[in-house]
Amino acid sequence: MINENFIYLGVFLNSLGSISYAIATLKGKAKPNRVTFFLWALAPLIAFYSEVKQGVGIQSLQAFIVGFGPLMVLSASFLNKKSVWKITRFDIICGVLSILGLILWLITKVGNIAIIFSIMADGLATLPTIKKSYNFPQTESVWIYMSGGVCSAITLLTIKTWSFPHYAFPTYILIANIILTSLIWFDFKKLLKTGS
Predict the structure, then answer these.
(1) Which of 43, 74, 140, 167 could form a disulfide with 122 if both were Cys (CB 3.0 to 4.6 A apart)?
(2) What pTM value is reported for the model?
(3) What is the pLDDT of residues 120-162, one digit of tens each?
(4) Which H or E element spans position 25?
(5) Within its chain, how far is the Cα of 79 from the centroid?
């Protein structure tokens, strides 16, 4: 376990990743999926609210920055019309299911249930970007996912009380970021084609 003040380093690194993605979006180099980024902003901010209400403390900053960064990228996507990724029926289905998860949270209003539904909603929102990262990794910027993974790892290393509200969301975010970073960095679709 490391000192919990390292959370600030994780939040700073995650912010840099989000800023780099927003700049890439403004330049037209990255093309974020607006469905994903909208829900990536919403679900973590709900998790942040739930974590704060359950007394998670400084580790809840990780959920906040994981929601605020996509909000910044989403905003940037409206400033450059060339930075928009075409939304498919798959994206809409994932978005609807994700929103359903958030509605279920609103109905229950129970802290741990809110975190579970936030993870479920975020995971469903992640599916379109996982698919896009596999098929078109060049339309993504790897740094937002790498820095998000580092922030999550730092958050997990600072936890003193290993209870569900403390570790659930950072663990999920770490796994999601490892998947996305790997898909973009290694371009598995290209590797599989050359390996055949």
Answers:
(1) 43
(2) 0.86
(3) 888 988 999 999 999 999 999 999 999 999 999 999 999 988 8
(4) helix 6-27
(5) 21
